[in-house]
């Protein structure tokens, strides 16, 4: 029956009341819901994929399409598919309902430890955004973030508690002696230090183990103190370990680590008006997150974005072109051997300063 339903003509909007486009969206969602209730998760998933990819001229799926397909995958015990769709819906700036999150929680329960950290991270964000203490992680944090936990253990053994400079040195030693860390050290750290001014409020998107946050605190102290850092980290296990590293360095009063998607924290309105914005999470989201927080930035704000040419953030570069004073610095990735180990030139990364 859906195959016989006329899709919207090219150029027509995919939503509305009474018109063919709106009716077609309704028809797609009704069919997906029917598949979900019949336990036909493959058909529901295929319909969503067809709509998402624009096949047959179909409009893009909306929130109802995702909710019904997530439910269908859960009924069919396709736990990973349900979680993937939940994340995809959130990336599309849709807000899945309680039923979708309930399905995700069930998926985590049935999937065991493989999926628990994902929903726990979302729950932790919801608690913290509401000013509440989040529940404990479902499994030991060290099991969810082995490398990050190793960094914390190394720091505690190598650096005296409260010695920020020694903690940063220990993290560099870990990267050199144990395992490489994707942190903004070396030339990147110097670029961050160079843009800071006395009393700056720094917002960092992408905390990892807290290295850049501590670099910023160290510089702000040398400038006379008074500044602070807010760092958002999607991975809840990494965020908890970063808090421990920062606390060991004696900087807990100067750094707030927030668990959750940067876009969720921006939408919450709880990040204030930062003087410096550091983008070091996902290059594909740089332009979206900058656009979301731009109205909160003062005219004197400085924006640093890592890896804008390699791996690349072309949409971000397009968004700031002609609107910001831009400088692109080509620097090597911190302590990364790369092709140089094989006799070739090292692979540079780039950092844009707007």
TrEMBL record:
<keyword id="KW-0128">Catecholamine metabolism</keyword>
<dbReference type="InterPro" id="IPR002885">
    <property type="entry name" value="PPR_rpt"/>
</dbReference>
<dbReference type="InterPro" id="IPR011990">
    <property type="entry name" value="TPR-like_helical_dom_sf"/>
</dbReference>
<dbReference type="Pfam" id="PF13578">
    <property type="entry name" value="Methyltransf_24"/>
</dbReference>
<dbReference type="GO" id="GO:0016206">
    <property type="term" value="F:catechol O-methyltransferase activity"/>
</dbReference>
<dbReference type="InterPro" id="IPR029063">
    <property type="entry name" value="SAM-dependent_MTases_sf"/>
</dbReference>
<keyword id="KW-0949">S-adenosyl-L-methionine</keyword>
<dbReference type="GO" id="GO:0006584">
    <property type="term" value="P:catecholamine metabolic process"/>
</dbReference>
<keyword id="KW-0489">Methyltransferase</keyword>
<feature type="repeat" description="PPR">
    <location>
        <begin position="62"/>
        <end position="96"/>
    </location>
</feature>
<protein>
    <recommendedName>
        <fullName>catechol O-methyltransferase</fullName>
        <ecNumber>2.1.1.6</ecNumber>
    </recommendedName>
</protein>
<comment type="similarity">
    <text>Belongs to the class I-like SAM-binding methyltransferase superfamily. Cation-dependent O-methyltransferase family.</text>
</comment>
<dbReference type="InterPro" id="IPR002935">
    <property type="entry name" value="SAM_O-MeTrfase"/>
</dbReference>
<dbReference type="GO" id="GO:0032259">
    <property type="term" value="P:methylation"/>
</dbReference>
<keyword id="KW-0808">Transferase</keyword>
